[in-house]
Design goal:
The protein has 513 residues and is an alpha+beta fold. The chain contains eleven helices and 26 strands. The strands form five sheets. Strands 1, 3, 5, 6, 8, 9, 10, 11, 12, 13, 14 and 15 form a twelve-stranded mixed sheet that branches.
């Protein structure tokens, strides 16, 4: 970025350095928001806001591609909207006020937000067999922007970071899922792609929502905001006790006890890491989160959808595409064998969270989901195979955001009918047809009126699945992959796994009973 100041006249040599340091505050130089830097990507096909700060009454002109837009700063702020642009670049974007700014190497293309908790934050350098991907990551048409971690009690207005080109020096610390998504999307579209990574490990969904939205919902106010106050009071008590014990341990040359964790404050990451991005023009968002809400999966059925709506309303771009990653398999009882896991039939809060994630794709437009039942790690909540995750998100983006005539989803349950002792399960997104991978179908359970599920026989017949068990002569419900670590193998022939599901509406572990 080049910044040009107005010439300084009649300056004595002895005070020149002082004036250079203070001139910006004296002149009130025009300033750009931190999202605007060299190497940035601007969203194609829609009016693009560019904004910043300047003295009241200062005239600010922004120019790119020979087109200029002018405005006057009010209340210390200014904003212009560039006209719609086609993908291309690199270009120079200039800003003219009392000083001049030039941003170099600017591209126009597709911009996506990458957000969530630790599995989105997980870096490319820590991903499965990523060494070659890092080595081959140089791509001048893929740009990366990382939002610094920041918790805030009120919405903040700026962010301190800058755009970089994708290359072996810049990608190792970037989100692995985000990188693979962007790499595949850029390759498929053949135009520039910009990724804005804003995530924080361990974060629950409610910290990514505005306090206004949470306050306006009586259920969230009671279950989230009021509960947080109780948790904070309890934390302060435990912290006080810990400080005393830590001091005693120090005096006795002993190791102090573990410090208690401060509870997440609702809205604090929305305030610090989403609000400052508004209203940067974007095409959509990818989201990998849910582990921290699994114990409240029933609440997530509405909370997650409301978070998506919260972002869409605040961005002011309508129902922009929102793509999520369904939770990967993980065995909370780590160390068990696969045979032990596969033999277990149980209730599962993780299965309920996956159902809540699926529900968002049904109740909201332009929401898609990448199913990753095949790339989990039974002993690690952070599965290292991130390339399939990003690739499936990119495929889903191509189908939903860009209307490509492709199959972008694995099979999704649509209905059940019972004929005698057999349950016939129907699906959408069957693509080229259903298939089982690696032998007979696994992961199906069935029950009768007693609601006691047992393992079932299942087979693909005419792109439906026929489920039965000699123990259940009169079936009323079927479940598939209903476990923390589902052992399943139903796919479509397009190479995408089926999402876990249940046909019943029995009371759940995390819901009303």
């Amino acid at each position: 970025m080049r910044v040009y100041s107005a010439p300084l006249r009649f300056v004595a040599a002895g005070v020149f350095a002082f004036i250079v340091l203070t001139a910006a505050s004296v002149r009130g130089d025009v300033k750009l928001h931190g999202l605007f830097s060299d190497n940035m990507v601007l969203q194609r096909g829609m009016p693009v806001p560019v904004w910043g700060w300047a003295d009241n009454g200062e005239v600010v002109t922004v120019e790119i591609l020979g087109k200029s837009v002018k405005t006057t700063a009010r209340d210390g702020k200014w904003c212009v909207y560039l006209p719609k642009m086609q993908a291309g670049g690199p270009y120079t974007l200039s800003v003219e006020g009392k000083n001049s700014i030039e941003l170099e190497n600017v591209l126009v293309g597709e911009v996506w937000i990458c957000s969530g908790q630790s599995n989105m934050e997980w870096s490319l350098s820590g991903a499965f067999k990523s060494e070659a991907d890092i080595e081959n990551s140089s791509n001048a048409r893929l740009r990366l922007y990382t939002v610094p971690k920041r918790k805030a009690d009120e919405p903040v207005t700026d962010v301190d970071s800058s755009w970089v080109e994708s290359n072996p020096d810049t990608v190792p610390g970037f989100s692995a899922v985000g990188y693979y998504f962007g790499r595949e999307l850029q390759k498929a579209l053949g135009i520039p792609v910009g990724l804005i990574h804003s995530s924080w490990g361990g974060s629950p969904a409610e910290v990514w929502m505005s306090e206004t939205v949470l306050e306006s919902n009586p259920v969230y106010k009671r279950q989230i905001l009021d509960t947080y106050q109780e948790q904070l009071e309890n934390f302060n008590k435990r912290l006080s006790e810990w400080e005393k014990k830590a001091e005693e341990a120090k005096n006795n040359n002993q190791e102090p006890p573990g410090k208690p964790w401060k509870p997440w404050k609702p809205a604090e990451l929305y305030n610090g890491m989403i609000a400052p991005l508004l209203p940067y023009a974007i095409q959509g968002a990818i989201w990998y989160q849910g582990e921290s809400n699994a114990g409240r999966a029933y609440q997530y059925r509405s909370l997650f959808a409301d978070m998506i709506q919260n972002w869409r309303i605040d961005w002011g771009l309508g129902d922009f595409t929102f793509l999520e990653v369904q939770l990967a398999p993980w065995d909370m009882n780590r160390g068990r064998s696969m045979d032990e896991i596969a033999a277990e039939i149980t209730e599962s809060s993780w299965a309920e969270l996956r159902e809540a994630q699926l529900l968002a794709t049904k109740v909201l437009p332009n929401v898609g989901m990448a199913v990753i039942t095949d790339v989990g790690n039974k002993d690690d909540i952070h599965p290292k195979k991130k390339e399939p995750v990003g690739s499936r998100l990119a495929l889903t983006a191509r189908g939903i955001a860009y209307d490509e005539p492709i199959e972008y989803s694995g099979p999704v349950y649509t209905g059940m009918r019972v004929i005698g002792d057999k349950a016939i399960i129907e699906f959408e997104h069957t693509g080229k047809g259903l298939e089982s991978r690696g032998g007979d179908l696994r992961g199906f359970t069935i029950c009768g009126a007693d609601r006691e599920f047992v393992w079932a026989d299942a087979e693909v017949v005419d792109d439906k699945v026929v489920v039965s068990s000699p123990k259940v002569p009169h079936p009323i419900a079927v479940r598939y992959g209903w476990a923390d670590y589902p052992v399943v193998n139903l796919w479509n022939k397009n190479g995408l796994p089926a999402t876990p599901f249940r046909t019943d509406n029995f009371p759940m572990v995390t819901g009303p009973r």
